Fold each of these.
Amino acid sequence: MTQAPTRLKIGLVQMSCSPQPARNLKRAIAMIEDAAKKGAKLVCLPELFRSQYFCQREDASLFDLAETIPGPTTDTLTKLAKKLKIVLIAPVFEKRAAGLYHNSAVIIDADGSICGQYRKMHIPDDPGYYEKYYFTPGDLGFQAFDTATGRVGVLICWDQWFPEAARLTAIQGAEIIFYPTAIGWHPREKSQAGEQQRDAWRTVQRGHAIANGTFVVAVNRTGLEVFNPGTDGLEFWGTSFIADPFGVVLAEAGTDREEVIVQELDLNRSEQVRRGWPFLRDRRIDAYGEITSRFSGSK
């Protein structure tokens, strides 16, 4: 039996998104190919990369952006993955049935097969992020997927704020947890709270890496998108990054430009960290029953 590699180069595609889905797919393909040329064997795209972030408004006509799985995006990217012999994580606005849509990600193996799918579990509803209008909460649970490059987990954007999601993915055996993301500033808030917001986002994910002794990878879009006329839009803050199992940031993109990051990971790092900080060993799984309650304090 061939021993699995202990070192793996991964690629992060931080891209800006135009109003034209075909143009976005073409741009994503070019950036994937660039990552592969730099040696990446596993590449992740940002959340909902085929369009601008349409959840800035509630508009029934925008359901036309959705597609089936398999569908046009997966048909194109499965062929690309097979050609380049790489694993791809490809977010998709999924049309499951008439009137039933999900914010999803497809895991494509290096032979071009679809080896897994994740549907976003936590759906936000905030000013400019009206996702509950568009997306049904995921029903596939928290998973890890066996690929040619190892066992990986995928969560999506708002999921990144929930320690339960990271923990449940980690205990499925994920060596790396990927977070395809679309997060940014309301321009009017940026000067007052922007840096604190971005630092909180970065810090909570580094915390997931430390608490679970696993690599965490966030892949965000960048650029200003005014999808709702008459508003300031959203300025996506980029900052795609990789944290190792001790929370050390190994690589990080800028806030305001497209970038392809390729970074080699030492997959033995989890073993080293977990031996020193054995959180999984010391979990009191007999005492966590109330975690399934909404709130256990005063009524």
Note: Residues 187-212 form the longest helix (26 residues).
Amino acid sequence: MAITEGVEQDRWTRVKGRLRSSVGEDVYSSWFARMDLERVQDESVHLSVPTRFLKSWIQTHYAERVLTCWQAELPDVHRIDLTVRTPMRCAAPVKETKAPEERLNERSDRGAPELRAVATVPVSANHEALGGSPLDPRLTFGSFIGGRSNTLALAAARQVAEGRRGDPVMFNPLYIHAGVGLGKTHLLQAVTWAGNSGVERKVLYLTAEKFMYGFVAALKTQTALAFKEALRGIDVLVIDDLQFLQGKSTQAEFCHTLNALIDAGRQVVIAADRPPSDLEALDERVRSRLAGGLVVEMGSLGEELRLEILKSRVSAAKVHHASFDVPLPVLEYLAKAITHNGRDLEGAINRLLAHSKLNAQPVTLEMAEREVRDLVRPQEPRRVKIEDIQRVVARQYNVSRSDLLSSRRTANVVRPRQVAMYLAKTLTLRSLPEIGRRFGGRDHTTVLHAVRKIEALVSKDIALSDEVELLKRQLQENI
């Protein structure tokens, strides 16, 4: 691909214009202002930057963006080679174009990946600039179906997304927990999309796995300080699937980042599959800080909400498949039969769409029953929580939940507390130390004593045995 130097520079000017329009002026000036064109040769474009850190950062986060901008000019380009220019000392560096992360660490690009096109979902400039996890463009507030089980979570997420830089933070952190397929990730990505729709705030969405990977990679490439500063310089940090956060050093860094952001008045939004108190693998300090914000549970999807979700999925499918139609009786059957989670509902619509299109047959109730039979699962028993046990026991014995967690040793409190501990051991999968911690920080031996005490009593005290069985029924029937 031999072209004259003048033509190369003209094209390079147009590529830089595309790049500036794509990522925005702030991001462009931070990462691309000092990138130079060396040459265009065969199917490769050779670019250079002044520091190793800048090279590593651009390689990690902007492979597709740079290549796409070049391919708009030269479709035959399939590779970008990025190198570090020979160091040249300047009397005074231009501060406006030097990123904070670069100033902190310009030492190493060991193990830096080759700059190639990688298929990723397009995201906003702020999000990409910080190496966020991929976002699904379908997961916005506009496509989220609200209902009784998620009203509070949706309202809190919207309040966070609509905030502006400098506004007082109302819920910090906002912690959303729910089972699989109930909409946690949808809400978190909606917050990210909405928050990044302008240029005022930096909003970063990361899975716990990506956070761990980023921290470990920064340690390996000696850019840990830059990694920390980059995270603590954002306005809204969104972390998904926190239950997967592992490693003592990674958890310690997450705790420091969490504290730094909250103390600085920056917003933190977190999602997990259980409440903070149940994340036993996390350090107690982290759990305590998480619980200090707004903790919201997204409940199971009711039949009415499931029907609305199904209708919305059909409407979305009809945008690309205008002839696709699902009769209301079929949707009502699916809403009644598929109770597990929202992903199963979406899977059911996808199956009906595929069957209808591939076999050129209309969707009928008989066809739906046949195609989704493996998605119709038996109703799972309700998962009993320690908080439920404490509430039901306190109500039964006319004491308060705070009495059960207190150090009081009066008879009217000790027996209900022992019953509650016994039920926690028999109806949940929690360990003795965890149960003790949830009952006012008691030692596991105290819990073991309570369990053995109630076991011995119910074997010979009919009245107590009946009381315990009644409590079990109330808990398992969600009374």
Note: Strands lie at 36-41, 44-49, 79-84, 174-177, 203-207, 236-240, 267-272, 294-297.
Amino acid sequence: MTAMQRICILGAGAWGTALANAAARTGHQVTLYDSDAAVMAEIEKYHTNKTRLPGVEVDTSIAVAHSLREAATADVVLLVVPTQALRTLAGALAGHIAPKTPIIACAKGIERGTRKFVTEIVGEQIPQTRPAILSGPSFAADVARGLPTAVTLAASDEQLAAALAEALRSPTFRVYHTTDVRGVEIGGAAKNVLAIAAGIVAGRALGASAGAALITRGFAELVRFGRAFGARPETLMGLSGLGDLILTCSSPQSRNYGLGFELGRGRSLAEAGAGKLAEGAFTASALVEAAHAKGIDMPIAEAVDDVLANRLGIDGAITRLLSRPMGAEA
């Protein structure tokens, strides 16, 4: 296994900046790259990223790459951009990356139109690489500040998964590993859609009981979806599944929860999502389409998709869910 001393993060958003800080704590050589020259200049000169991750100092040991070609010389590359931008970035990286370089996708979603999962996108765009996925219950500000966090890293090869987890692990950033790539991807994608529903429940002031029911029944949907795609039960019950669902469905720090909360208060989608990227808003339609293709019952996810697409109002969605036929819990 090649030494993994040089780690590069592509994407200096909140999560990319946080992961750069986390990687720097391992003592490895860390490089950060973003196509936004102004952001890169600020990080290089002031060690801050006030627009994307305010109030957090960027570790002074982090180097700034000035081109994608320069960034691609690392031993490990993390792609930290939204799912819908992943194909473009991976395609641009393909001509610069050395064969068999491990690439870790750090997005939580499903590509619209193709219904591809993130490692599938990376594999298609860079066939000579070894794709992996990093996911789990983690807020960027917590990770950037070094607060205790545990996540999961998945790769199809056990040895590679373990080596990548070890390369990113630090005393406050615990990285577990697995070969259940699809299970980790599904947990991250589905929980964002369900978090929008949880936010709507809170914004509508439907009460804590309704919130608990939503999370529980939403998790049942996530499990049904995961099983249909071959995910392991322990993965769905773990950090990247249930763990991430609990975090994202219970805190205003979550962009998806925050989007749902504002929708629940009566704001339009444009008003609710102004200035913030909520991956669940883009994943909802792809998730529901994938579920329909396999005959998976996901009424909460469908309700979110219908609300986002303006096919159904929030009150109508609530009525539809509450009027579903009763049956045994499953």
Note: The chain has a mean pLDDT of 96.
Amino acid sequence: MTTGEMERIVLVRHIVGAPTPDDFRVERLPIPELAEGQFLAKNHFVSCDPGTRSRLSPGASYAPPLAPGAPVDGFSVGEVIASRHERFAVGDRVALTGWATHVVSNGRGYAVKLPDLDVPESLWIGLLGVPGMTAWFGLKRVAALKPGERVLVTSAAGPVGATAGQLARLWGASEVVGIAGGAEKCAWLKDIGFTHALDYKAADFETAFAAVAAAGFDVMFDNVGNAMIDRALPHMKLRGRIVVSGQVADYNTPNDLVPGLRNTREFIGQRLRMEGMVVFDDLPGFAAAQAELAELICSGAVQYREEVFDGLASLPDAFCGLFTGASFGRRVVRV
């Protein structure tokens, strides 16, 4: 028998333009009784993901849009506290979805029992969750990165970009160029092994980009959107690959105002390949990749930054800050 109340964040209305905290509300409701085949988890941490934005407007994305009044289903990590499910026992640590203090699950969808790795729990919705796995499989599967290749990473100080850049160097890239916003972020990128770090906010950005782009790029790992891809296309090497991981600059822009790609002739002359990715295509490989990445994190070979907010009610503010340039590192909320 389960008793008590839970809180969750719901979408107030479909969002046009940049999200604001008023687009969300905290809803309190009783914890439901568990049916056979369900379990109840108490969340410890909940994530802020830019990709969540694509489901908060009425247009379809790679996942169906949320309806107004629906709970927001960002990623979470916690512990099973009651169970009527044969595979999930009380005390199991789990990764789930739900901007909520508690989650009732039937074990289907994204419901993963976590292995006993010696890492901070919040990393299961960070480098060992969707951001880290996006970087890992984006380079390995989509880009098929080879030693000696030159790599460009956009939004490079974010959790996906920073992880991708570090993995690229560890896996033999000759140079890794990162683009980020602000001198502090660029200094950190140099500290963690990026060969070049360019500040897109700087007055001399175009000149600096032209200088490092002159040698060309074999791989572009893009988290920003069409304008940045179009800028890089003329500098891609023969048989270069572009990984479309995210579009943080375009999520809040109406479709008819999203910049287009003009330099498409480069695809022909340079035999380029551009491919989007949804990391859950690689779910069967998560466990092995997470174990390897955990070792790299524990050894200090891969570093990360984390911004921790306290309380479920802080989630809307933390999420909206992803689109203002205020974030620096993986944003998580301690429930």
Note: The chain has two domains: 5-125+305-334, 130-280.
